[in-house]
C-alpha cells in the first residue's frame, strides 16, 4: 500500500480553501466536465436544462473525488517529483487523512445525487469510473506496469459515456466512439509528456514506458497509437454525432497530429535533449488542442442538429 495512507498529519502551513480545491485536480476536472457535457448534448434524447446542469455538476464533483483519492494514495510519489512536489499533501498543507475523507465523501455524494437527478445507471457508471481511477489505475496499474497509461486511460475516457447515459439511460455506438477517442488519445498525450519529464518518473520509480523501455521505444509507441487514433477520429465523422464541420476539424487536426508523431519518431535522442525537447513539448500542447477541438466539434454538430430540427 502507498506510504500516503500512513503519512503523519503534520503540516507545512495552514491549509487554505485553494489547497482543498487543488486536491480535486481542477485541470483534470475541467476535461471531465467538458467531455461529459458534450456527451450529454450530443445524445439524441433531450434533457431539461436544470437536470443537465445538476448532472454535469455531480459528474464534476465525482471527478474531483477521484483526484483527491489519487493525491491521497500518491503522496509519496508526488513528494519526489518536481512537477507535483508542491501539491497540498506532500507540501504538508493538507493531511493525508483529510484528503482521503474528502475524496470518499465527495465520491458517495456525487454518485447518489447523480442517480437521483438523472438515472440510476449514470450514477452507477460514475461510481465505477471513480473506482477504476482510484483503485484500478492509481493503486494497481500505475505502480505495476508500463501500460498504466494505456489501461488506466479508460478512467478519463468514461465521462462522455456518463453524459450520454444521463440523457439516454444507456450506452450506444456513438458514446463508445467518444470513449475510444479519449482512450486512444491518452497514450500519445501522456507519453509525449513523459519524454521530457522522464527524470521525474525515474525518481518516483513509476514504471512509465520511458523508464522501463526507454525513449526510443516510447517514440515508436506514440506513432503507433497516433496511426490508430486518426482513422477512428475521422471515422466518427460518418456517425450521427459527426458531420461536415466535425469532419473538417478531424481531417486537419489528425493530419497535424500524424505529422507531429512522425517528427517525434524520427528524432535523435541527442538532438532532442540538445534543443530541450521542443518538438515533444509542441506535440504535447497540440494534443491538448486536439482533444478539445474534436469534442467542441461534436458539440457544434449537436447544436446545429437541434437548431435544424426546431430546438431542444
* N-to-C SSE string, H for helix and E for strand: HHHHHHHHHHHHHHH
In the CATH scheme, what's the topology name of the largest domain? Answer: Tetracycline Repressor, domain 2
Whole-number radius of gyration? 20 Å
Q: What CATH first level of the largest domain would be assigned?
A: Mainly Alpha
Main β-sheet: number of strands, strand sense, barrel status? none
Q: Considering DSSP H and I runs of 4 or more, what fraction of the residues is helical?
A: over 70%
- The CATH homologous superfamily of the largest domain corresponds to UbiA prenyltransferase
First and last CA, distance: 49 Å
Please state the overall shape, judged from the principal axes of the Cα atoms. Answer: flat
Q: Tally the structural domains.
A: 2
Sum this structure up briefly.
This protein is mainly α and 312 residues long. The protein is 76% helix and 0% strand.
Please describe what this structure looks like.
With 312 residues, the protein is mainly α. It has 2 domains: 170 residues, Orthogonal Bundle (Tetracycline Repressor, domain 2); 141 residues. Helices cover 76% and strands 0% of the residues. It has 15 helices and no strands. The radius of gyration is 20 Å and the shape is flat. The termini are far apart.
